[in-house]
Input
Amino acid sequence: MASVQDRVKSVTARILEVDESAIKDDDNFSADLGAESIQSIELVASFEEEFGIEMDEEQALSVDTVEKAVAFIAQVCQEQGVEV
Amino acid sequence: MSTSSRPVSKEEIQQLEAQGCRAESWQDLQVSETFDPARVQNATFAGKVQLGSNGGTVAAGGRLSKPAGIYGAYIADCTIGNDVRIANIGSHIANYAIGDGCCIENVGTLETSAGATFGNGVEVEALNEGGGREVILHDHLSAQLAYLQCLVRWRPKLAEQLDSIAKKAVDAVRSDRGTIGAGVTITSVSRIADVNVGDNAMIRGAASLTNGSILSCPEAPTLIGTGVIAKDFIVAEGATVDEGAIVGKSFVGQGSQIGKQYSAEGSLFFANCEGFHGEACSIFAGPYTVSHHKSTLMIAGLFSFYNAGSGTNQSNHMYKLGPVHEGKLERGCKTGSFSYMMWPCRVGPFSVILGKHTRTFDTRDFPFSHIAATSDGRCEMVPGLHLSTVGTVRDGAKWPTRDRRKAPQLRDIIDFDVLSPLTVGRMLRGLQKLRESSESTDRSKAVVTIDGAEVRRVLLRKGMKFYEAGIEMYLQERLVDRIEKARGQNGASLDVCKDAVFSEEWIDVAGQMMPWGRFETLCERVESGAIGSVDELQSAFAQIHELYGEDEWAWVAWAYQKHFGQSVVEMSADDQKGGAESWRKSRTKFLNLIAGDAGKEFNEMTSTGFGVRPDATERDDDFVAVRGTQDGNKFVKQIQEQIDEVSRRADSI
Output
């Protein structure tokens, strides 16, 4: 199974229509990858589907970079007993 | 106005003639006991004219006080009150009763023709330019009356009765003589014909006013200003029509403002609307409909609590049998800059519409949605997104504070609640549709279409989550409200009031929300003749309004049982505490989301345009100097205060 990081980048690339290989860990979803607020919602929804988890909206939307998203999702997966 | 009058004396006639005055027949001139002939100069009287006392002064604007009297005027068949100043009338004043304390200066013509109805009886083709939904203007029109007449056409007997009620109101004002109320100022106006003017109205520099009524009162003076051209109109108390506005076959409601060259044709604007720069054609603008920008056309639509972005436009160029438009944006919608909608369309409450939509959709069951257009004009919806955005919350808070109506009688009944049985009921229906779609859609599908709007599949569950959160927060909040109310009444129960009416479905009658059952009963009473006058109809709406809280609680009791499987009526004290605790969590979470959304206004991206040089410190300092900080923001502070208040209230249950 691909790593959390790879899966986060894959989902991000698909939703934001950017080149996956160009996504860096410290990229900001808005400033660097061009995510608009609607796309942020879609990203959260897509991460939930990808990992089979439920994320707290408020916390999820406050995550601003790819590496923070990876850490946050890994933590939620652990809390919800989802193997990654 | 003077009640005691006498014929003008021989001595007075001699003095008047010496001062350049003439009369077709001096016997037809009646004056008050205290009439001062020195204050009538270069005046010609025709027909029967009655003059009041004229020894005082009138306020003439610009802190000026001028002597009452008549100076340069041709006056025919008029009754003129006490202390009125009439000066520099270019052509004539004919067939008017002019109230005490008026100042009429530099007016070309002021006249009433036989059988005038003063804008009453004009049929406005609102919502549908092609006709079929005509609203008859009259002095007692309200948003609710107009809604019934305009929209409930599937009940022909009701339409017939409403026509009859309206026509009675029209007949009541029909007259050969117009009225200028007390304390009215009319200055520098070219022509006023068949226009009634209420007390304390100000008409300054209008170009032409024909067949209309300017309703006005001391508490809410109405202003008709510079360059206004109005024909076949009624303007209600406290409204302003100014700065070159063109108004034709239209109603302007209490506290509304039309100006800056706005053009309104065949349109109805109810309380607190604003129209500047743009154009309205055949619209039904419910309370708080606002359009401020150039190139904004609102056409053949129903709106309320609406804000039109610049360049907003709607049309239907596909018509074949005439221009049938019929678009409905339910309360609280906004359209973004250069948004375009192809009517007919129907948008659920509190939605935001962006882009150029060339397809018809009906999202009535998806309130608070984000509705954007794809590049080829299809509708793409994020259901429920704006439930927890800062804009919705700010709008909901600002409307009640911006009620400009000051008249003793408020015509339009307005229920301001953002969350109500109307909107939450729609959320329940939307939730069901999203659930069904989610369960029946394969993961391979990226997009599903619901009611003409496309929804990305991954957002179906997100929309359900938004709606569930909104529904639960509302129901829990109303429970807490009711518990508090019951405790305030020394142990009153949470029972549903016997006078309450429950209907699963509610209707928004141009700003007034009510259960469908109440609406049906009202319609039946009109049809049967039990309600037969404008006053009775207004009174019926007011009675429904008084029971809004009880009707709402009946709905909440039903919805609580449906959603949570628990009866609010049979709740134990522990159950109530549990409900309050759940409300604390849901409400606090909601407020934190709002605060988070407000916080986006202070992030790095937002400050991009600030500063001059490419220097981050300068940019940030400039931003803070202009916009302030998140922690110091008034709205953010209010949110925090609300969170504290939620905790305090929940603790007290």
